[in-house]
Specification:
Blueprint lengths: L12 E4 L2 E8 L8 E8 L3 H10 L2 E9 L19 E8 L1
Antiparallel strand pairs: 1-2, 2-3, 4-5
Length: 94
C-alpha cells in the first residue's frame, strides 16, 4: 500500500457486515523488519457523515468526496468516482 496506494482494490478487501478489512505492510526503521497489520475500515457516504456531524452539534458547510492529496479539486468528484477515496468535511461547532 505504501508504494502503490491501491488499498481500495476490491480483490484486496474483505467486507463483513458493512466493515472492510485489508492487510497492509509498513516499513520500519532500518534495523527492524516490516510490520504487517489488518486495518479495519468503516465506510461512510457523504450524507451519513453529514448526519453524524449534525448529530454532534456541528454546522456542516459541505461534505465532498475527494482524492487523497487533492482536496482542493474543483469541481468536486462524484461519490462513484474511483478516485474519490476520502470524504472532506468542512464544519464548525454551533
Amino acid at each position: 500500500m505504501e508504494e502503490s496506494g491501491d488499498i481500495f482494490n476490491p480483490k484486496l478487501l474483505l467486507e463483513y457486515k458493512d466493515v472492510y478489512y485489508r492487510k497492509e505492510q509498513f516499513l520500519q526503521m532500518e534495523d527492524f523488519l516490516p510490520s504487517e497489520h489488518v486495518v479495519r475500515d468503516l465506510r461512510y457516504t457523504a450524507s451519513s457523515l453529514r448526519n453524524l456531524l449534525e448529530d454532534a452539534k456541528f454546522v456542516v458547510d459541505e461534505v465532498i468526496p475527494v482524492q487523497a492529496g487533492h482536496w482542493d479539486r474543483r469541481p468536486a468528484l462524484d461519490e462513484d468516482d474511483p478516485r474519490a477515496k476520502e470524504l472532506l468535511a468542512i464544519a464548525r461547532l454551533r
